[in-house]
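Milestone M4 deliverable, item 7.
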Amino acid sequence: MDTAAARDANLASLAALIEAARRGGEIALRYFRENAHTSAAVSYKTGGSPVSEADHAVDAALAEILRPVFPHAAWLSEETEDDPARLRRQTVIVLDPIDGTRAFIKGDPCWTVALALVTNGRPVAGVVHAPAFSETFAAALGAGATLNGAPVRAAQFLLLDGVHVGGPRGLRQALAERVGFRAEAGPPSPSLAYRLASVAAGRVEIGVAGEGSHDWDIAAADIILEEAGAGLVEEGVQVRYNQASTRHMSLVAGPREWLARLAPPATGA
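Output delivered:
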């Protein structure tokens, strides 16, 4: 497939993802209560992570919408039991029905529906939809990144001193000390997908995440970053998806020209 045809195919995939994410957001909003506890029933997974009735409702709706659109794609969702058969598929839909469930439950509007189409280990289309903010970040490989349909680009800067870093305080400080610059705190973001998409949109210059994120937390934002002139690295290299383990090491997102300096060292280095 030539470049133009591939871009058009990716855009068609993205359109389907955007429609599905917005539908998922509408379902989640039925349970969301800003500044108040959700109306959804809440339970807890092994390990203590909360999951709500809304997470499951959105997951089911997205499966109903997207599986017929992408019949040859595998399925990898935080709220669906993982099927190792996905490793034999070239293409996989990767999603988090509600990224930022804790925030959603307590009435914080910073949660998202995150969807990505991954082919050969890399996302080719992705959407991070924040229903409570009425914001939709989206990108398709070769077609640029947008926020509510308008093009976005990552921030450009000549010096690291004074840039805003999104992420937990300890991670921000560790990055600043390791690289040697003065960092300002970016706005808090319980949704990792939203934090990374904010880097793509130039709202914050750098984003960090600790060890333990999964494919569904980051794949959608990854392609948005890439198409916005930024990137996401794991131990200094581009992140790969649909591997046997979905779990990732520490991550840094930022403008492409700064990533080599910002990237965390490989384990044991």
